[in-house]
Amino acid sequence: MSARFFKPLFLLLFLFVFQIAYAQQDIDFHLSNTFLAGKNIIKVKRDFNDPYLWVLTQNSEVYRINSETLVIDDYTSKFAAYNNLPIIDVAGNSGDEVFIAQADKIIRYTNGTITTITSAEGLRGQVSAIGFHHSMYDNYDADGNHLVGPTLMISTNIATDYYYTTTKRLLKTEQTKFLVKVATYRNVMLFHNEKDLTWLFQEDCYPVLSTVYQSMYVGYIYLEPQMFGSQLKAMYYNGGLEYYSTNFGIYGNQYWATEKGLFQNKWNNSQNPALYGYNHYLENNHINQISSILGLTSFDFSNVRENMLVATDEGLYISNSKFYPQQILPKYEFYHYDGLGNKKINYIDVNATPTSAYTYSIIDYCENGVWVGATDGLYLLRPDYTNYFDQNQTIKAITFDGQPSDKSTLDLCPGVPAKANFYIINTNASIQWYKNGQELANQSNKTLEINSTGEYYAVLYDPCSGLHVQ
After folding, report:
1. How many CB atoms lie within 10 A of CB 148?
2. What is the pLDDT of residues 173-183, one digit of tens each?
């Protein structure tokens, strides 16, 4: 047996992440396209399984935009028969199906056919908001029918009920007065506008229901006139890439905005931020919505970015990213995005495209843009990590079967192949293996069987950002 050396694969990441990388701006945005110039955009929503974006203007105009071809279709005339009341919300299930909310009904447009959901179909109260939820628990209606598939949440002044699009049935809930505040493919939040009096020592706690995949969490928004403000403007949560579905109660962070600015605390201590600690940002800014964008999910967990996005009357604000998981409360820095000036931003929606078949895993989605609805039009921003991605730093990311994880060379016995395993969290990233500097044809899997001695490495391509590491 002769000794031969194999060079392990190294991902080029930030080794100094804890000291430097996340204490300053680490993402740029470029204004890519402008749509519907001069129109006041109040809602913009795109379901992640369909390329079509649905846009609602202040004048109850409805538009559909193909996020791939950027072709705009005006759907306003299709709802002309219902112009007696303003349209207050919109939620698209696909390019062929969209739901329009008015105070007294939900209008369902499917392949040219319009139906309505009114009190006759069981709608309770005055509609305030709608939003799609793709990971609801299995439920059954009053007749025992199994309700599955994409779920439209309908908030009224009485309840938040669920309408199942596949069965066309409305499930009435016992939960009263919850309001849909966030409904995206990875964030669903319902806010209860009455105080939770079970917290006798905290009379200003307002319950929040948040769904993280198949788990439901109960938290609290603290509203108090002097310290936190009393008018809830927006809310959001995050929890680090690998903890969106596990241990969220420990690592999750909650955000809410009032007339006094943006606040943040830990999810599991949300019933009393004054006691357990909180962060306060953008003091006295007029905040309309909170969101975030994930990036570099193809690479090692420690290099994944999640930057907060805040829509305000004074423009768009973007944070630096934070490394998760961490039980301590992280502190962000926010900077103003000057590319859109100081115009009022009403709504933001992240352009999330699945990189594989339908899945609930957030690492299999490419968040490659931000749709920004402003008072003077719709804007598409593209994220750019190039200036903050150091390709000269490395970490070990390869192991050999049956060997210690820190082993970087291996003796190869004749007739006994070795197996190299490439650690990767995004199964849809592109991999290309090399031997002695030459590309190995048809070798693009996470595992490489090695039958001859040499120096091996691989290049990993991020399908979303266009960056690669060697």
Report:
1. 12
2. 766 678 889 88
